UniProtKB/TrEMBL annotation:
One of its GO terms (biological process) is fatty acid metabolic process. It is found in: Peroxisome. This is Ketoreductase domain-containing protein. Pfam families: adh_short. Belongs to the short-chain dehydrogenases/reductases (SDR) family. It comes from Stentor coeruleus. GO terms for molecular function: oxidoreductase activity. Signal peptide: none annotated. It comes from the Eukaryota. The lineage of its organism: Eukaryota, Sar, Alveolata, Ciliophora, Postciliodesmatophora.
Length: 304
């Protein structure tokens, strides 16, 4: 990648740009020449209420940094309105950072359908809605960059976050499909799993951790993913406190049983099902899985 990652002439839509990570992205893209759509609903961490203040303040900061901003106060569930703001103000859209988010943490026993739907709608549906509205512009211009915000809660699981974890893992599934569908149009989609100090995490982290995990340490990696020189597509990256690393799937040795077999036969193979030792098998598609089964079957079909 070039040492001077500029975004002159590019239009970046940042959802949830009124605070935390979104605000930090907006300020950095402003310095790098992008025109910015600052979207924020302005509600609480739990998604209650709304206000224009957070988005207005960040738009003002963007303008003070010498760039231009258009403001949008809609929920990400109405992605078409957010993208319309970009088209009306700047005539194009090049980059979307799907970042808006809320929490409704509650254990499974107490989780209501409303807790579930609210989180799925803002995170998963919101990410879809904004992306869907931008997609036709990306395809027609043969260019687009998308950064979706996943979470360790979805990748690893986190107590009390069945709704949030499901949405965040769903977001990475969505990213992987976008990457495959967008490749031929020069649309690149990647997911990040950030850990950062924000109003979302202020009750979880010590003051020392809050200092270590400032949002500004996430921003440079996201700038790289959004640049036209970025070749990454479909990746999932942990980003936190100056640490940047890719995650991927790894397949264990596994077991193949021919003919008829029982649960007891499967149980005997349990060690192989779980054995990763010394193996470097990193699948990237279901074709790979099907290919493996066909090859095992034909090996087993050969006369001994
Ligand atoms: P934050 O609360 O500071 O920022 C989220 C912003 O999204 C807020 O300004 C909020 O008003 C806005 N927002 C909420 N619902 C919206 C909606 N429906 N439409 C438009 N805007 C809406 O939190 P943050 O830590 O900066 O989180 C940013 C993203 O990163 C979220 O998706 C979050 O789930 C994810 N994330 C954060 C962490 C972390 O450690 N902070 C970890 C993993 C994932």
């Amino acid at each position: 990648m070039s040492e001077n990652l500029r975004f002159d002439g590019r239009v970046v839509v940042i959802t949830g740009a009124g605070s935390g990570l979104g605000r930090a992205y907006a300020l950095e893209f402003a310095k790098r020449g992008a025109k910015i759509v600052v979207n924020d609903l302005g509600g609480s961490v739990k998604g209650e209420g709304k206000s224009t203040r957070a988005a207005d303040e960040v738009a003002e900061m963007v303008r003070n940094a010498g760039s231009v901003a258009a403001v949008n106060y809609d929920s990400v569930e109405n992605g078409d309105k957010i993208i319309k703001t970009a088209i009306d103000a700047f005539g194009r859209v090049d980059i979307i950072i799907n970042n808006a988010g809320i929490l409704r943490d509650v254990s499974m026993l107490k989780m209501t359908s409303s807790d579930w739907d609210t989180i799925i709608n803002v995170h998963l549906k919101g990410t879809f809605s904004v992306t869907k509205a931008a997609w036709k512009y990306f395809k027609d211009q043969g260019y687009g960059r998308i950064v979706n915000t996943s979470s360790g809660s979805g990748i690893y699981g986190n107590f009390g976050q069945a709704n949030y974890g499901a949405a965040k893992m769903g977001i990475h599934g969505f990213t992987q499909v976008l990457a495959k569908e967008g490749e031929k149009y020069n649309i690149k989609a990647n997911s990040i799993c950030p850990v950062a100090a924000s109003r979302m995490t202020q009750d979880l982290f010590t003051p020392e951790l809050m200092e270590l995990l400032v949002p500004e340490k996430i921003v440079p990696f996201v700038v790289c993913l959004c640049h036209e020189s970025c070749k990454e597509n479909g990746g999932l990256f942990e980003v936190a406190g100056g640490w940047f690393t890719r995650l991927r799937w790894q397949r264990a040795q596994g077991a193949f049983l021919k003919g008829k077999f029982t649960a007891e036969d499967v149980k005997k193979e349990w060690t192989k099902v779980n054995c990763f030792n010394g193996l470097n098998d990193y699948p990237t598609g279901t074709q790979d899985t099907i290919g493996k089964i066909i090859s095992f079957s034909s090996e087993n079909a050969k006369p001994k």
